[in-house]
Amino acid sequence: MDRSQYLTTGELAKLAHVTKNTLFHYDKIGLFCPEIVLDNEYRYYSIHQIEVLDAIIMLKDLGMSLHEIREFLNGRNPQKLLELFRREEKLLDERIRRLKDRKQWMREKSAKVRSWLNLEEGQFVIRQQPRYYYLMRTFENSSDTVFAEKTAELIAFYESRSRSVCYEIGYIQYERDIRQRIYDNYGNVILLMKKKEGGLNYSELPEGEYLVTYFQGHWRNIGDAYEKMLDYAKKNGLRLAGEFVEVYAVDQLMAEREEDYVTEISVQILGRAGESFH
Description:
Layout: E1 6-8, H1 9-16, H2 20-28, E2 36-37, E3 43-46, H3 50-61, H4 66-73, H5 78-117, E4 124-129, E5 132-138, H6 144-159, E6 168-174, H7 175-178, E7 188-193, E8 203-205, E9 208-216, H8 223-235, E10 238-250, E11 262-272
Antiparallel strand pairs: 1-3, 2-3, 4-9, 5-7, 5-8, 6-7, 6-10, 9-11, 10-11
């Protein structure tokens, strides 16, 4: 054996930036075996095997399982490589799309949290918002258990028909209830998003000015925020739409207790006192 043409397990591991245990495992499963094993069980890899190990590492980075890599390496040829690349490119495109989708979700979630942090509780802001789309599930019994069941059903329905994960869970309260001081008539759950996905039958929240405030506390105590919101609208001559949308700005990702959750309440401004409506 010309020692200059061979590497020990430790030498190859260091050169390829893998662990010795990784090489032992690859040898055990028959994926990548040393070219020479001496009687004293010392293992030696040919320097020409480095290229094969590089290929294994590259294929593993693409997300292939060790079993798939072994199947590919057995009888590999240019045609088999092109077929592999076509298949993996589709998987990578989908992975990139999902990562971009998740990044957009994080940006929107961060913006909502920053909006709350920059606004004192009980204050109001008038915000220009883009058009939103939503899917809704309605129900009679508004217990916590029903909430959880209907929310899970709606998410499963949406994700079975759409590739997007960029949505918010929310609820709609209606002016007819708010003006009668009914603040716990939660008979629906919605998934709110900026893009329509999957050819589903969406409802819309139109683009325009929205009156926005934040409430920190358990949802059963949200009535005070609504009373202040209606009072603010009256004093400033704002004509509001009939749908008030609630989404969490701070939820279980950031708070341990429901009492520490923060709800964003928004409602479209249809006009102002003194304007002519058509």
